[in-house]
Structures are given as C-alpha cells and as structure tokens.
TrEMBL record:
Source organism: Aldrovandia affinis
Family: Belongs to the HSBP1 family.
Gene Ontology annotations of biological process type: cellular heat acclimation
GO cellular component terms, A-Z: cytosol; nucleus
Protein name per Swiss-Prot or TrEMBL: Heat shock factor binding protein 1
Stored Pfam families: HSBP1
GO molecular function, one term: transcription corepressor activity
C-alpha cells in the first residue's frame, strides 16, 4: 500500500510540474505577444503624431519643428 501511495504521489507531482510548465509557456507566449503589440502601437502612434504635425505645418497652423 505504501508503494501505491508513493507512486500516486510521484505521478501527481509529475503531473503538476508538467501543468505548471505548460502554464508558464503559455503565459510567456501571451506576455511576448502583448509586448509586441504594444511596440507596434507605439510605432503607429509615432507615425500618427508625425502625420498630424506635418498636416498642421502644411496648413500653416504650426511652425516646422527642427529635430534635435
């Protein structure tokens, strides 16, 4: 009976370790995807800000900005 309990405990521990590794992998993949999308949004926002500044300059609403 003790061997059966020991085997069950070992099996449960292995199952839990595998499950935790799978969860960690999924969490890492989701985290990487979120960071990638945030970077993409930042790039798009930078482009949008530049386009708005260009339009305002063309409309004579703002002096052209010089890059530093």
């Amino acid at each position: 009976m003790a061997e059966s309990n020991s085997k069950a405990a070992t099996d449960l521990a292995e199952l839990m370790e595998t499950t935790m590794q799978n969860l960690q992998s999924k969490f890492q993949a989701m985290s990487d995807q979120i960071v990638s999308r945030m970077d993409e949004m930042g790039t798009r926002i930078d482009g949008l800000e530049k386009n708005v500044a260009d339009i305002m300059t063309e409309a004579g609403m703002e002096e052209p900005q010089t890059s530093k």
